[in-house]
Design goal:
With 384 residues, the protein is an alpha/beta fold. 41% of the residues lie in helices and 16% in strands. It has 2 domains: 22-47 and 281-378, Aspartate Aminotransferase, domain 1 (Alpha-Beta Complex), CATH 3.90.1150.10; 54-278, 3-Layer(aba) Sandwich (Aspartate Aminotransferase, domain 2). The longest helix has 23 residues, at 281-303.
Length: 384
Amino acid sequence: MHESFRQRLSLWAEQGRLRRLRDEGSLDSRRAQRDGRELVNFGSNSYLGLERHPAVTNAAAAAAAESTSSTSSRLICGGSPLLIRLEEETAAWKGSEACLVLNSGFQANITLLPALAGRHDRILADRLAHASLIDGARLSGAELLRFPHNDLDALEELLKKPSTGMVFVVTESVFSMDGDLPDLLRLAELCRSYGAFLYLDDAHGAGICGPEGSGPAHGLGADLLLGTYSKALGSFGAYACLSAELKDYLVNSCRGLIYSTALPPAVPAASLAALAIVRSEEGQALRHRLLALGNELRRLLRDGGLDIRHDPTPIVPVPCGDEAATLRLAAALAEEGFLCPAIRPPTVPEGSCRLRLSLTAAHLDRDIRELAAAILRHHPQLKS
């Protein structure tokens, strides 16, 4: 290996930022394996715990029994009735005119944005927008300006700046590392007032709130609403909800769609089954359960002396200090039987290391109580 790469690896190790792949992962949305031990899993994004729901797994198995591959891109011979039906059902769920399914959230953002924006345009992105959104903005060649996190006054000042091309506002409905939301109504109004294109990533919002779990951005009127089936729906793939005309435009311009083999049949089959659950009374009960668990964990941590924001999402960030303190806390919790991911730069900004706790409807009441007690015992701010 070139010495330059070796030096970078050494530096990351010294900074407490070196990551390694593991051959052990989630057993389900509540349990994970680490070093041969079973831990209570607070790292899963399967918020409703649907990834092993019998209706979802049976649908995937039945489709996989017919074929394990789509064999080609959708523009050649990789399309299927399942994909078309999934787009129709998703559009109806989100209240949009049309929907376009893509292979993953990351792939969608890094290929949709370059298909929409070009070097004469301007992209205004939240400072904490997901890496895929920033990468997509940079790949587009458009001028990229970033505004402070959820600071819509600062966004408005940028919207007032003259521009020769289109202006795109790029942000999220629920931020994946903080679990917070912008003022979505004001955001949409600003974009309408200044004629800006609103590109909203709803990956962590869909399924957890809104009518039939359609997300906090339901009815907002975003020009493009990006979501994934891999979070609350426990499946895989991504979707863009948009107008029928814009869908036609992207089918002819989005390289991630044009040049990617389409999702295999088992994936849209699983997503359709999961979507039916999310929109049902069962899905509503799971959302109520998820909200109650989040409220209880935040209450316990605040009562114990930690500064924890109150957001109506299943993502609970626990600030810890520097990289070393965060890793120590995560290790102490693992010893007590909890998987709590330590989040460090570059995933989050310098000085904002935290545990990112993801709750699912599969967690038990005692999981929440025991986790909160363990955090309060070991948190560096509370230890005497």
